[in-house]
Amino acid sequence: MFPGLDTVVAPLPEVADPDGSAFGPVSVRERAGGTVEEEYLRVLGRPEQLAAWRETRSYVVEVTA
After folding, report:
1. Does this model's pTM top 0.90?
2. CA–CA dist 15, 19 (Å, integer)
3. To the nearest whole number, what is the mean pLDDT of the chain?
4. Which of 2, 27, 25, 1 lies closest to 13, judged by CA?
5. What are the residue ranges in the chain where pLDDT is below 50?
6. Buried b (16+ CB within 10 A) or exposed e, 16-32
7. Residue 22 CA to chain centroid, in angstroms?
């Protein structure tokens, strides 16, 4: 199970650089930006679908007959 996209993660003190880490806390969403999901949506998704992903809102396509 993976953490939710709004979860904030940071380097573990046990493995961080003792002189101060160059990496601060960041949300999983920020870290995942530009990953497979967004690339998939950019190539194969609808523009509204990609916008919803970036704005962290649900997207449900309207069904037409």
Report:
1. no
2. 12
3. 78
4. 25
5. none
6. eeeeeeeeeeeeeeeee
7. 20
Reported in sequence order, the residue ranges of the chain that DSSP labels E, i.e. its strands, are 8-9, 26-27
N-term to C-term CA, the chain: 37
**If DSSP codes are grouped into helix, strand and coil, which group holds residue 47?**
helix
Q: In 1-65, where does DSSP find H-type helix? A: 28-32, 36-44, 47-54
The single-letter code of the amino acid at 3 is P
Computed over its alpha carbons, how large is the radius of gyration of the chain? Answer: 17
- Position 6 scores a pLDDT of 80
- For the chain, the structural domain boundaries read 29-56
